[in-house]
Amino acid sequence: MVIKLYGSPFSTCTKRVAVVLHEKKIPFEFQEVVLAKSEHKSPEYIAKQPFGQIPYIVSGLNTIHPEIDHIRTTME
After folding, report:
1. Closest to 6 measured CA to CA, from 38, 40, 36, 37
2. Which CATH superfamily is domain 3-74 in?
3. Strand order through the sheet with 3-7
4. In angstroms, rounded to a whole number, what is the distance separating the alpha carbons of residues 47 and 40?
5. Beta strand pairing call for 28-32 and 3-7
6. What is the pLDDT of residues 28-70, one digit of tens each?
7. What residue spans define the domains of the chain?
8. Are 42 and 48 in contact (CB under 8 A)?
9. Is the confidence at residue 8, as pLDDT, over 90?
C-alpha cells in the first residue's frame, strides 16, 4: 500500500512531511494541490481535510493530518 501525500510543492509544511517520509524510507505518491486555483477549498478536498489545510496523508482508508514530530516518532 502506497501512502499519498496531498500538498503544494511550494509549501514548506508539505516539504517537511516529504523529507520525513524520505528519511524513514517510506514510499509515497505526491498529489499536487494547486492553491492558486483554491483546490484546497473545494468540496472534495474539504471532505477529506475539513480545515482546508495542506498537507494531509491518505494511507489506505485513513486520512492523517500530519504533525512532523508525530510522524517522526510514529514511524520509528
Report:
1. 40
2. Glutaredoxin (3.40.30.10)
3. 28-32, 3-7, 56-59, 62-64
4. 10
5. parallel
6. 999 999 999 999 999 998 888 888 888 888 887 666 666 555 5
7. 3-74
8. no
9. yes
